[in-house]
Specification:
This protein is α/β, with parallel strands linked by helices and 558 residues long. Helices cover 31% and strands 21% of the residues.
Length: 558
C-alpha cells in the first residue's frame, strides 16, 4: 500500500516537458509511480486538475543562523520551498572559534541586516567546525532539505581572526584555509561561496573578510573545492570584478560557477546583458559560468538608523561607523552631504542610483507627518525647493531617524527583467531568504515567477518556470534525486493552482528571538507542499505539527 496518492493532478515534471494529467503515488518518502490508478494508499489527495510540480529549490538563501533556532526556516516551506541552499556569498557561521562568535554576529547584523539581539539570543553555538555544524543540523532535524556552502569569510576569520578584514593572507594562512575547505567538502558541503561586492560590509563599514582576498588566495580555495571532484563555486561580484577573472577561477576549479547578483538597471540598460554575454562566451569555452538573476523588483524598507541601500556609496562609509548622536551630527554635516551627492551623481552606488522618485515615505515617526506617507522623496523635496538628499536627511533628523522609507532600487523595468528571465541558462534565485529581514522578504520568488511572469506576463511557460525552479538548480548544485517528478525520486512536491498562485504583500511581525522585527509574506494558490513525502504546508500555510522531514544533503553529483 502506498503512503500517499495525489489523484487527477496536472503533472509539470521539472524537465520543461509538456504538462499531462495523471496520479502520483508516494511510498517511503519517494515517488513510487506516476500513472492512473496506482493502487490503494493510506492518504489520498484529490487534486482536481491542480498542478503538481517538484518542490522549489531556493538556491540563494542565508538561513545559516536561523536554522539553529528555527529548523523550519519559516516562511519558505509555505511558499513551496523544499530545499534551501544556505551559506551564499560566503556569509556563514561555521567554522567559527568561540572567541570569534561575537565578531561573526556583529558582521551579520550589518552585511545581512540581522538584529544583533536576535542573533545573540537565537544562535545555538553547538559547533565550531563546518562538519560540526552539519552534524548539529542533522542531529536537531530540519523542516525542508538543506544544502550548505562553506563560506569564505568564515574560513578566513577562523584562520586570521580580526585580521581577516584588514590584510592579505600569508602562504601559511592560505594553506590552512585550503585544509578547511577540503574538510568541509569531505563532510558534505555543496560548494564554496565568496563575495567581492563593495556593498558587503561588516560592523562599522569594515569590509567582509572575503573582500581582502587576492587572486592567489581565491584560486587556491576554489582549487581546494575542485579537488573533491564535485561542488559549485558561488561568487557575488563587485563592480570591479570582471567576468574574465571569474572565468579563470571557474577554469581553476573545473566546476559550475554561479555569479550573483544580476539585476536590471534601466539607467544602464545594457550593462547586465553585456555581463550575460560574457558568461555565455565563457560557457562556449567550456567553463560553466552561470548568471544568478532575480525575478522580483528589489524593494527595501529601511530607516536612517540602518540605510543599507546607501552603504555602497564610498562617501557613506563614515555613517556606517557612527551611532546615536554622532550619526545625527554626520547626517547634518555639509561636507558629508556634498560627498554623498558627488557619489550619487557619479553613479558609484550599487543599489541606489539617485532615483529619488522611487524612494517613498512609508511610515512617519511623528503622527503630524502622516500626510506625507506614500509620497516620494523627489516630490516632497521639489515641494520644499530642496535637493532630495538634503530634504531626506533633514526630515530623518527631524523624526529622530525613525522614519520608515521604502525604495524600488533595481529590477523595476519589466521589459529588462523579462529579458533576463527569458534566457534559459540563467538561474532564477536571489531570494536572500533569512537575511535583510527588516528590509524585504522575497521568499516567495518562485510563486512570483509562476504567477506573474509565467501566467500573467507570459515571458516563459509554466513548464519552463517550474524547470527553472527545480530541475535546473538541481543540476547546477548536483542535488541527486530531486528537482524532477520521476519514479524513484524523492517526494518533494508542490501542489498549486496556476490561476491564483503568487505571494501577498510583505507585512512586519515581531517573532524573532528577543522580539526582533522582520518582514514576511504569505503564499497564494498553494494547496500542498511535501518534503520527502511528508506534508509540511497546505492552503493555510505551514503545518506546525513538530515533524521535521527534511534532510541535510551531503552527497552531490560530480
Amino acid at each position: 500500500m502506498h503512503d500517499l496518492v495525489i489523484r487527477n493532478a496536472t503533472i509539470v515534471d521539472g524537465t520543461g516537458a509538456p504538462r499531462y494529467v495523471s496520479d502520483l503515488a508516494v511510498a517511503g518518502g519517494r515517488i513510487a509511480a506516476i500513472e492512473r490508478n496506482p493502487g490503494p494508499a493510506r492518504e489520498t489527495v484529490e487534486a482536481d486538475g491542480l498542478m503538481l510540480a517538484p518542490g522549489i529549490i531556493d538556491g540563494h538563501t542565508h538561513y545559516d543562523a536561523q536554522l539553529t533556532w528555527d529548523p523550519y526556516v519559516d516562511p519558505s516551506p509555505a511558499h513551496g520551498v523544499t530545499t534551501a541552499v544556505i551559506g551564499n556569498c560566503g556569509f556563514t557561521i561555521a567554522p567559527c572559534r568561540p572567541a570569534d562568535r561575537d565578531l561573526t554576529m556583529r558582521n551579520l547584523t550589518h552585511v545581512e541586516g540581522m538584529s544583533l539581539e536576535a542573533l545573540r539570543h537565537g544562535i545555538a553555538w553547538d559547533f565550531e567546525s563546518f562538519p560540526d555544524y552539519l552534524d548539529m543540523l542533522s542531529r536537531r532535524g530540519v523542516g525542508p532539505n538543506v544544502a550548505a556552502f562553506v563560506g569564505h569569510s568564515s574560513v578566513r576569520t577562523y584562520v586570521m581572526g580580526a585580521d581577516a578584514s584588514r590584510r592579505a593572507a600569508t602562504d601559511t594562512e592560505i594553506e590552512q584555509m585550503q585544509r578547511l575547505v577540503l574538510a568541509a567538502m569531505g563532510a558534505g558541503a555543496v560548494g564554496f561561496a565568496t563575495s567581492t561586492s563593495e556593498s558587503h560590509n561588516g560592523e562599522a563599514g569594515i569590509p567582509m573578510p572575503s573582500r581582502l582576498a587576492d587572486t592567489r588566495e581565491m584560486q587556491a580555495l576554489v582549487r581546494a573545492m575542485g579537488e573533491s571532484g564535485r561542488g559549485t563555486f558561488m561568487l557575488t561580484r563587485g563592480s570591479a570584478t570582471s567576468i574574465p577573472w571569474i572565468e579563470a577561477l571557474a577554469a581553476a576549479c573545473g566546476r559550475p560557477t554561479l555569479v550573483a547578483a544580476m539585476f536590471y538597471n534601466h539607467l544602464e540598460p545594457e550593462s547586465v546583458f553585456t555581463l550575460n554575454n560574457e558568461m555565455r562566451a565563457a560557457r562556449g569555452r567550456g567553463h560553466d559560468v552561470i548568471p544568478q538573476v532575480s525575478c522580483c523588483p528589489v524593494t527595501m524598507e529601511f530607516t536612517l538608523q540602518s540605510p543599507y541601500v546607501f552603504e555602497s556609496l564610498p562617501a557613506w562609509a563614515p555613517a556606517m561607523a557612527a551611532h546615536g548622536e554622532a550619526l545625527k551630527r554626520l547626517y547634518a554635516d555639509p561636507q558629508f552631504r556634498a560627498g554623498v551627492k558627488e557619489d550619487i551623481a557619479g553613479g558609484r552606488g550599487l543599489l541606489f542610483k539617485g532615483e529619488w522618485d522611487k524612494l517613498h515615505v512609508v511610515a512617519a515617526a511623528d503622527p503630524s507627518h502622516r500626510s506625507l506617507e506614500g509620497r516620494s522623496v523627489a516630490e516632497l523635496a521639489a515641494d520644499a525647493g530642496r535637493h532630495p538628499l538634503d530634504w531626506f536627511l533633514d526630515f530623518g533628523l527631524q523624526e529622530n531617524l525613525g522614519t520608515l522609507f521604502t525604495g524600488v532600487l533595481l529590477n523595476s523595468d519589466e521589459r529588462g527583467v523579462g529579458r533576463l528571465i527569458a534566457d534559459p541558462h540563467n538561474h532564477v534565485a536571489l531570494s536572500d531568504a533569512g537575511a535583510h529581514l527588516t528590509f524585504f522578504c522575497d521568499v516567495g520568488f518562485g510563486l512570483y515567477l509562476l504567477g506573474h511572469w509565467a501566467r500573467d506576463v507570459g515571458i516563459i511557460t509554466i513548464e519552463e518556470a517550474v524547470r527553472r525552479l527545480t530541475g535546473q538548480p538541481a543540476a547546477i548544485f548536483g542535488i541527486r534525486d530531486r528537482g524532477r517528478l520521476v519514479p524513484g525520486a524523492a517526494a518533494d512536491l508542490l501542489l498549486f493552482d496556476p490561476a491564483t498562485v503568487g505571494r501577498t504583500k510583505a507585512r512586519r511581525v515581531n517573532d524573532l528571538p528577543a522580539g526582533a522585527t522582520r518582514l514576511v509574506t504569505a503564499a497564494r494558490g498553494v494547496h500542498g507542499v511535501w518534503v520527502n513525502g511528508e506534508r509540511v504546508a497546505d492552503a493555510t500555510g505551514r503545518i506546525a505539527d513538530g515533524r521535521m522531514p527534511g534532510r541535510v544533503l551531503r552527497e552531490f553529483a560530480s
